[in-house]
Amino acid sequence: MFRGFYTAASGMLAQQRRTEMLTNNMSNANTPGYKADQAAMRAFPEMLLERFDKVQIPTENGLNLPFNREIGTLQTGVYMQEAIPKFIQGDVRETGRKTDLALLDVNMPENGSVFFTVQNGDGTVRYTRNGNFTVDAKGNLTTGSGQYVLDAAGQPIQLSSDRYTVSEGGNLTGENGEKAMLGVAYANNPLRMVKEGDGLFRTENGAELPLAAGTRGVQFRTQQGFLEQSNVDVSRTMTDMMTAYRAFEANQKILQAYDKSMEKAANEIGRL
Questions:
Q1: Is 80 exceeded by the pLDDT of residue 51?
Q2: Are the C-beta atoms of residues 188 and 127 closer than 8 Å to each other?
Q3: Residue 245 C-alpha from the chain's centroid
Q4: Same structural domain, 218 and 250
Q5: What is the DSSP letter of 146?
Q6: Which PANTHER family does UniProt cross-reference here (predicted)?
Q7: Helix, strand and coil in the chain, % to nearest 5
Q8: Contacts of 176 (CB under 8 A, 6+ apart)
Q9: Are residues 217 and 98 in the same domain?
Q10: The pTM is what?
């Protein structure tokens, strides 16, 4: 009885985590460059049930021999192993703002992706697809959440104003002649990157990604005055949320049935 109790409880916890993930996707449906998460669900290892018994041999001394008989397997529940981002190119929308930049995957090896390289205040390097940039009071090109946008040499980009131009290849030219090459990095397996808040990613071991420019087989395009939109499919996400809710509700009803059975066993059967 208790095995089924814990199996239903694990199903509820898994669907709760999946619902939280889908809710986060929905809340970021309008966040530029956001990559939707998808759940990886796994089952706990199965248990093989056996019955241990003994058989009596009709001998003079009444010999008993132990034996076991297989009953079958028992599922022990499910859990959400991890949330994996989908690195599919989002739709590109024109904004008209010269500080907005979009990365377009023109030709990529299978599963590869390119990112803008940015730097936190503590000097650590992060990667993002959100090109909603601005120029701060000190002339640094920054993201909307304050990270410095880096050039190909790994240095913050300094500008005299927000009136600059960017070529399709990522070459940036300021109003007063400042020049820089955007530090566009390439990840051959972005699924191994760790997702953080504010649309940022980092590598698992902290190593920096190589530049996309010059990497064989990698072609991208930078589009000024455009932003890559979130790749969240709103209608699909709503459907998945309803499915997760129904699965949670079904496990909840099973849990309630077990609870009533245990209550009857304790209050009625126990009195006999």
A1: no
A2: no
A3: 20
A4: no
A5: S
A6: FLAGELLAR BASAL-BODY ROD PROTEIN FLGG, FLAGELLAR PROTEIN
A7: 25, 40, 40
A8: 160, 161
A9: yes
A10: 0.79
